[in-house]
Amino acid sequence: MNTAKPERIALFCLTPGGVALAKRLSAALPMTCYTREGLVEPGFLPFDGGFSASVGQAFHRETALIFIGATGIAVRTLAPLLVDKFHDPAVVVIDERGQHVISLLSGHIGGANNLARHLAGILGVDPVITTATDVNDVAALDTLACQLNARMHDFRSAVKTVNQMLVSQQRVGLWWDESLTDEVSRCDRRGFITVTDLNALPPLDALVCITLRDTLPELPLPHWKLVPRRIVAGIGCRRGTPCALISERLHRQLAAHHLDPLALKAIGSIVVKQDELGLIQLASNLDVPFEIFSVAALCEHEHRFPSSLFVKQTVGVGSVSGPSAWRMSNGNLLGETLREQGVTITLGVTDRC
């Protein structure tokens, strides 16, 4: 999935006026600027294999694309590349006089709306944003998910349904775990009705629950669970431990703490496990990063955990899962370490996304 905060921006321009405008924008915001061969000057790169080929390469590599020129050219060039709003990069189109900054694709999840607003601010003009939720001055479920770094089962369907309800002025409630109050309070919640007690619901058409819990009480209306990624797992294992075994132990550990597996943010281990197939496959299956720590980094926190002489002689540090979880969570550990069949798992909770 793409990001609501574009980090890698490619700009494309085809005319002298476009190059002049690109200079203004690149001076205020880091980006890589491309133009045709005859217009290249310091700070610009020539198209690699032509305009369309360069756009295609950037589309799959960058998190945001800016076109200075006609909207029609951008649309025709991008059309064969499009997947959906959950995966396409943000795309913004600007006329070469800098009078119109148009959010064209991936306004919410990709971050095109925010990028358009930022670029319009640099140029001193109004952004052109057409997404229904923004036009109706309400929040969007996909934006909320990005702000919280949260996941949801059947996300596509939920986004379509909830956003349509919001723009249709239906009553959509929003409830969250008390531990998430500070984070949720900073999010865009326009149009949602705040719910404080699941056992005393106001009149609602639907409800979105922001929670790390694996289960919710039975609710008498359509509802969706939005799960922020906050849980990390430090994992140690014997060489060659099957992914299925590690996965079963991890899910059991999550269930013991009543945590939804979608809350998992990352797994971590020691550098000698960087090629451990079971851990690599586990991270892939769960769609989370696999973070690797050096022996020296784990040794800094080795004294906090029970040490195994065998493990220390094998990998250079007496404990792997505990120090890994400690580093990923800044010491905010959750419960006791699981130790079974050569697998150790320590959970931690991160403060924010």
Overview in brief:
This protein is an alpha/beta fold. The chain has helices spanning 16-28, 51-61, 71-78, 112-123, 132-135, 141-148, 155-167, 181-185, 243-256, 277-286, 295-299, 309-315, 321-329; strands at 9-13, 32-35, 44-46, 64-68, 90-94, 101-105, 127-128, 150-151, 172-176, 192-194, 206-210, 223-228, 231-237, 264-270, 290-293, 333-340, 343-349.
Radius of gyration: 24 Å
Helix content: 25-40%
Number of helical regions: 13
Structural class: alpha/beta
Number of E strands? 17
Protein name: Cobalt-precorrin 5A hydrolase
Domain Cobalamin synthesis G N-terminal: 55-134
Organism: Kluyvera ascorbata
GO biological process, one term: cobalamin biosynthetic process
